């Protein structure tokens, strides 16, 4: 029997970036970061995203909450500033915004920054990016240490993943399934594995779910749909749900690059139970929250 999603989960956009106007303006310190520059150098790519704009986007799409994060800067100081801004967004919109902290596990002080982020009210980590931040992907390496720390904290983690084939584009990166596999095998064993979500359909990893060992591992992961309209046909996400379980698939827009409206053709293909998981139930399990506890009283939006 298929398990239904939590009945009162609301609708959650699980992948939203906070990019204030001062950050995307030419000449800001962000433009000294090679990955930020690469991803936003195009004439229409550097779109600002402030807390009010995020809430307005949720309202337009009839969604309740957004999981919001900064940018995966290499410089820990830029990450710190971004964490403060995300924390302020959470304080200003506690019923609408769930905040993740960004740290660089290849640079000293990331564990202390997690402590500071927790004190600020952030409740997870993301989006981490191997190519942007320079950390290793090998078992026993820098990312492994951070994942173990987050597992001990019971914090969710969002990790950028990318496809090993297909067209190139700014921000694609090299954290593809073949490179991630040894680390995933190492960290997803034991009594307390991390609650790890691989962005962008995990670079296609769950599409190998016809292989029993891949399906078994993917049942311990989550995958978001961020940038789906730019990468795959809508049916690709549906295959992930069928192969690995709808409770492993999260809707994430990658706002401000894309809006939730771009995902409507995919969502309209789903049966009610599957859509309930994708639009909110899966996010709750990844975040470690129940449907009725741990939220401010009013969610607004289209709950």
Give the tags.
303 residues, alpha/beta, TIM Barrel, 5-stranded parallel β-sheet, 3-stranded parallel β-sheet, 14 helices, 8 strands, globular, disordered C terminus
Named at the architecture level, the CATH assignment is Alpha-Beta Barrel
Q: Order of strands across the biggest sheet?
A: 4-5-6-7-8
Low-confidence stretches: 297-303
Tell me, rounded to a whole number, the average pLDDT.
Answer: 91
Question: What topology emerges from the helices and strands here?
Answer:
Layout: E1 12-17, H1 21-24, H2 34-40, H3 51-61, E2 65-69, H4 76-92, E3 97-99, H5 110-120, E4 125-128, H6 130-133, H7 142-153, E5 156-159, H8 177-187, E6 195-198, H9 199-202, H10 212-218, E7 222-224, H11 228-231, H12 235-244, E8 249-250, H13 264-267, H14 272-287
Parallel strand pairs: 1-2, 2-3, 4-5, 5-6, 6-7, 7-8
Helix pairs in contact: 4-5
